[in-house]
Amino acid sequence: MTPALHEYNSSGRSFFKETNTFPAPGSSEENVAFQLLQHGLSKQFSESFPNALAEKTVVIVPSLTLDVAILSKIKGRIFYEERMLCMLLLLRMPRTKVVYITSTPIDELIIDYYLHLLPGITGSHAKERLTLLSCYDASAKSLTEKILSRPRLMKRITNAIASKEQAHLVCFNLTSFEKTLSVQLGLPVYGCDPALLYWGTKSGSREIFRQCNIPMPPGFEDVVTINDVAEALYALKLQNPALKKAVVKLNDGFSGEGNAIFSYKDLATDEHLMKAIETQLPDRLQAVASDVNFTDFMAKLKEMHGIVEAFIEGEIKTSPSVQCRINPLGEIDVISTHDQLLDEATGQVFLGAAFPASEAYNVAIGKMGAGISEALRSKGVLGRFSIDFISVQNGDEWNNYAIEINLRKGGTTHPYLMLQFLTDGNYDSNTGIYTTAGGQPRYYFASDNLQSDLYKGLTPQDLIDLAIYHGLMYDGSKQEGVMFHLLGALSQYGKLGVVCVGSTHEKAYDYYNKVIAVLELECS
């Protein structure tokens, strides 16, 4: 049963009858209801967002609603829901309420750790305005799907909201499930309409780059079949006979796990090239994920579609990214730049990031990010997103190639939010420098993949004890030190995340190296 759309008022707030029926998921009625809710977000952004003393509620759903097969390659993936705990620092605003929902309960010690970072607010005051809810479900199903299947949990979320007129949803990424959740809770969501997600796929990204005249690797979009891949690989080699490798990427891969590398080693560019590629493709195409074979990868490509592009070579090569935001008023901000650390074996898997990106190109890629943001705004995109690049030094200059757009939060979102919440600072994209409220420059190195079997068995309490004893904890007076996350994954997976803040890049790296040294010393 579907309620009449007149049950939505002009601000987009839903008033369903006592039957609690909602528009069918994916229906045109649901889409209309979602759009009406989204219209109300601009009023909130203008009135309550900038007012630190305004009463408001932020409902945080840190669901990684992504392909289950790809997510399964990430160790401790369920604990990635903890990455958005940095948003508990919103509780520094004394009349703001936060509702945070997870698949499984979060250790109270971890919550206390975040609340102790709050400047000017006691932990008890913040706790009174914090509602933690859990699905008690560790299955591979996405968190959002778990929430939608629990009507009593949905009711508890609603009961925790002071006023729907001054409340909104924040999610890691938006899909049709988050759209349904938005409508059924009657809350707008600060993020991109799932109908626009094509522009965040590998194929859609290349279309945007082409529209903006942004340099990108030679390649082909919307490949589906084995024949498509072979033909694209053949065409790339003909265009550039010196090409050594190419990359096949699934449209919706995550953290490099949806990529595969093809080697042209010992293949002659002659009349036999096409036949050789077709014959040897199963052996030469190696998926980045170690437990994914050729057949599985091609099946996933047929389902998701993807791209084939040249592998950019270079003796000095980096992988920077630009994080941007389009707010509900349509204003564009270049929020940050990062130099991403990728794995040495494939150069595809995200391991960490240094902020800001190198002064050699951070201003240049920031300008590219602004231009891409304008194109995305014309499509109707809203919220935070990032653009990945490959930068290669050529003499005294750097050549920057756009690689992909991620229309969601990512590995560089939570570290920057932590820094910004704790220092009240801002990144100036015109200079490539971040300064605190006091005018001091700050840098960090962050990683979600600090992992070793040696760390297994350490509890969050153990880690905090070690950090205090060795002087690693973030110091609010100096605005330097280490902030930890993914603490829930530590004991079982030997994995944790860190954000190491310093007054220089070197000092930030020193903190990171000290964390590693302390853990090896204490765990060996």
What does it look like?
- With 524 residues, the chain is an alpha+beta fold.
- It folds into three domains: 5-190, no CATH class; 218-310, no CATH class; 317-523, ATP-grasp fold, B domain (D-amino Acid Aminotransferase, Chain A, domain 1), CATH 3.30.470.20.
- The protein has 17 helices and 19 strands.
- The chain has helices at residues 28-39, 41-47, 68-71, 108-115, 123-128, 143-148, 151-159, 176-185, 202-211, 226-239, 273-284, 294-304, 362-379, 413-423, 460-469, 490-493, 505-523; strands spanning 56-61, 96-102, 130-134, 167-171, 219-223, 245-250, 259-263, 285-287, 306-310, 317-326, 332-342, 350-355, 383-394, 397-406, 426-428, 433-435, 443-451, 481-485, 495-502.
- The strands form four sheets. Strands 14-13-10-11-12-17-19-18 form an eight-stranded antiparallel β-sheet, sandwiched between helices.
- Strand 11 and strand 12 (350-355) form a beta hairpin.
- Helix 1 (28-39) crosses helix 8 and helix 10 packs across helix 11 (273-284).
